[in-house]
């Protein structure tokens, strides 16, 4: 149940941040922003928060989440018919905003002890605090 709550928090925050950058900034339709949010939230939660973060540290996990955000936003924006250049700039801005959020979100995950390693305590908890 803790994963559902954490994923909902991440999803809502991602939706708000992406709507500001993509919806208000670029004029992207809400439906597109919502679908990008779903893909990005689930993908970055699994890859960045559950796999990469427990094995590395907050900086590496944040960088990987930012890189994933850039790729997903850029490619999905192109698929929705936006120009490559406009989407590249917008995806860089959105990925930077998402990176700031992810840095603090990883602290939340550490406090909730989600993504424990086999020893029963998160390897990365002390690295974040």
From TrEMBL:
Chain segments annotated as transmembrane: 7-26, 32-53, 60-80, 86-105
Keywords: Membrane, Transmembrane, Transmembrane helix
InterPro entries in alphabetical order: DUF2512 (IPR019649)
Pfam family, any one: DUF2512
Name used for this protein in its record: DUF2512 family protein
Organism annotation: Alkalihalophilus sp. As8PL
